[in-house]
Design a protein that fits this description.
This protein is α/β, with parallel strands linked by helices and about 400 residues long. The protein has helices at about 5-10, 35-45, 60-70, 80-95, 110-120, 135-140, 160-170, 185, 220-235, 240-250, 255-275, 290-300, 315-325, 370-385, and strands at about 75-80, 100-105, 125-130, 145-150, 175-180, 195-200, 215-220, 280, 305-310, 330, 340-345, 360-365. Helix 3 packs parallel to helix 10 (about 240-250), helix 4 crosses helix 9 (about 220-235) and helix 13 crosses helix 14 (about 370-385). Bound molecules: pyridoxal-5'-phosphate.
Length: about 400
Amino acid sequence: MNLDDIITHLGENRDQYFYSIAPPIIQTSNFAFQSIEELRKAFANELTHHIYTRGNNPTVAILRKKLAALEHTDDALVVGSGAAAVSASIMSMVKTGDHIICVQKPYSWTYKLISKLLFRFGVEYTFVDGRHITEIESAIRPNTKLLYLESPNTLTFEIQDLKACAALGKKHNITTVIDNSHASPIFQNPADFGIDIIIHSATKYINGHSDVVAGVICSSHEIIKIIFESELMTLGLTISPHDAALIIRGLRTLDLRVRRSDLSGRIIADWLYNHPKIEKVYFPLHPLFEQYELASSQMSGCGGLITFKLKAETKDQVLKFVSSIKRFLMAVSWGGYESLMMPSIAFHDIRGIPDSPIHWSMIRLYIGLETPEYLIEDLSLALDQVKPD
Ligand SMILES: *Cc1c(COP(=O)(O)O)cnc(C)c1O
C-alpha cells in the first residue's frame, strides 16, 4: 500500500466519528456491550475487539493498522515504551534453558534485559559482533531460539546482513528480531528481508516530537497474537489513547522529518569528516564508513545520528568542547525537532558495556530539523575552543 494512503486513509473510520479529519481520542478504560452474544464474540478475540483499553482501544487500533502497513507486516502492537516492545518480543519467544544470540552493542537496557533479568530466569545468551554472518552462525547452539539484531545500532552503527540473518533463522528454526528504531520504517523494512519481528522505540522518529514515550512491535498474525495474549496483557504494557493520538499526528510528517534529518545528517557528517580536530566519524551512509556497501544495500537513508571521536589528549579538552556547544541540547534520546548532543564522557565509566568500552572522547549528535548551517556554525565555534595542550 502506498505511503500516502497509509497516512491519510488507512484505519481512519471517519464515518464513525462525524467525518472528523483528525482521529478522536477515545479516552475510556472500558466498553459496554448491547448483548451477551456480542460480549461473547469479543471475548473470543480480544485482540480485534474493544473490551478494555489495556488490550485494545479504537484510537490505538488506528495506529496499529498504519504501523503494520508501514513495516509490511500483518499486524502491529503499540506499547508504553520502546523497552516494553523489546522485552515483550524477546520474552515471548524464550523460556528457561533457551539461548539468545544478540548483537554486541544493543540499546543499553536491551543488554541489561538479556544479561541480567532473563539470565536470572535461566535464559542463556551470547553477544556477537554481528558484522560477519559466519560469526553469528558459529554462535548457534541446539537450544538457540532467538537472534536479536539492531542494524544499525545507535552509537557506532554496526550493520548486520538482514537477508543472511533471516535465512539463518529459517534454517535453524530461530526467531529473528530487529530493533529498527534508527532506520525508521521509511528507510528500512526488515520484513522484506524475511525478519520475523520488527521493533521500534516510537519515542524516537515515529512520534518525533520529544513528547511521548512509546514502543511498536510489528509481525505476523500468529506472533502478534502470542505477544498480545501473553506479555502485553499480563505485564500490562499498554499505551494511553491520548499518546496514541499524538503518535498518529507525528506519523503524518514522519516521511518529511526523517528525510530532512537524513539530508542534514549527511551534510554535517561530511563536514565533520573534513575537520582537522575530529579523529573519527561514524555515519552509516557516508562512503568512508567501513560497512557502507551493506548499509546502502539495506537502507535508503539513515537519519541524523552521527558519532564522532574528538582529537583530544585530555578529558578537559572534551569538557571544553561540550560546554562551548550552545545550539544542540545536551540530552539522551533523539528523533524530535531539536538537535541533541550526548557526550560519552557523561556515562562511559557508569553505563559502559563492559566488553566494548566506549571511549570518553566520543560524542553522539542527533541532527534534528534546524538548518544544517545553523548547526555547523555551533560545532565550528565549539571546535575552535578545543586547544592543543
Ligand atoms: C530509545 C531506544 C529504545 C528504548 O525505547 P524507549 O522508548 O526509551 O523505551 C530501544 N532501542 C533503541 C535503539 C532506542 O534508541
